[in-house]
Amino acid sequence: MILGHAGFPVSSSRDALHRSIARTLRDEIADGRPEVGQTLPPEHDLVSRFGSSRHTVREALRTLAREGLIERRQGATTRVIASHPRGPYQPTMHSIDDLRQYAAETVLRLHDVWTAPLAADEAAYFGEANIGEATGAHWLQVDAVRWAGPQALCSNRVFIDVRFAPLLADLAPGAALTVGINEMVCSRGGTKIARVEQDVLARPMPAISARHLGLKPGAMALLFVRRYVDRANCVIVWSLNWHPADRFVYRMRMERGPD
Fold first, then answer.
1. Does the fold of domain 96-244 match that of domain 2-80?
2. What is the pLDDT of residues 87-111, one digit of tens each?
């Protein structure tokens, strides 16, 4: 079962459009259209196909080149050199929209779903300012693995305010999501996310996450703790995202403000 929309285009913004084009071409290359050693259509053909600008197409091709899928040479054709991305997945995240796009470009495959209070080690990550909301409360909990094509990116534990549980009956083991669980909560619960709080920590991976990813318990990982806060200043969804250290690069761009 696939929930969400992975079709083209995802958004009308140029930034989302070049990522949508890259994803479409990436999927076609994985299917052997074109095969390794063959060439992609010329830029002007891609511009016509996707109804985009030449700049947007070039951004998409640069993304595929960074992933090791294609080889581009000035004044020459663009050749496919691999059927699947090489090296760690490298999303670029600057905003809530980027998090939404990240969910759309990957697949979250659910392993287990249940309702229970937080374990003590989980509550420690909830955030000191809001710890009272978490302690002793029941949460709808989801164990899942996020995939980018054939590559398992991370093991996820997602916690959802239990009052939204009746709206999420389709969250079940075996489901595959291409939309964020927080987006499902907002669209079905009539609420909106005001901000996302994120902590990034270096931690040894717990046993269950390591098992999901085929690693040994205690393998070093980057832990991303994300808290989705609504306009009433309540955390309605939060997650623990365990990324193996060799499979993920978190890239940010910082620019100088006006002098």
1. no
2. 556 565 667 877 887 787 789 999 9
What confidence score (pLDDT) does residue 9 get? Answer: 33
Q: What is the pLDDT of residue 59?
A: 86
Q: Are 37 and 80 in contact (CB under 8 A)?
A: yes
What's the predicted TM-score (pTM) here? 0.67
pLDDT at 4 over 60: no
Residue 191 vs residues 109, 121, 140: alpha-carbon distances, Å? 25, 29, 17
Side chain identity, residue 211: R
Domain boundaries, the chain: 2-80, 96-244
Structure tokens at 253: 């761009």
Q: Which residues 6+ apart lie within 8 Å of 251 measured at CB?
A: 90, 91, 92
Among the CATH numbers 3.30.413.10, 3.20.20.100, 3.40.50.620, 3.40.1410.10, which is that of 96-244? 3.40.1410.10
Topology of domain 2-80, CATH: Arc Repressor Mutant, subunit A (1.10.10)
Q: Burial, 84: exposed, middle or buried (Cβ in 10 Å; 0-12, 13-18, 19+)?
A: middle
Q: Are 117 and 199 in contact (CB under 8 A)?
A: no
Rounded average pLDDT over 46-54: 93
Residue 13 has pLDDT above 60, yes or no: no
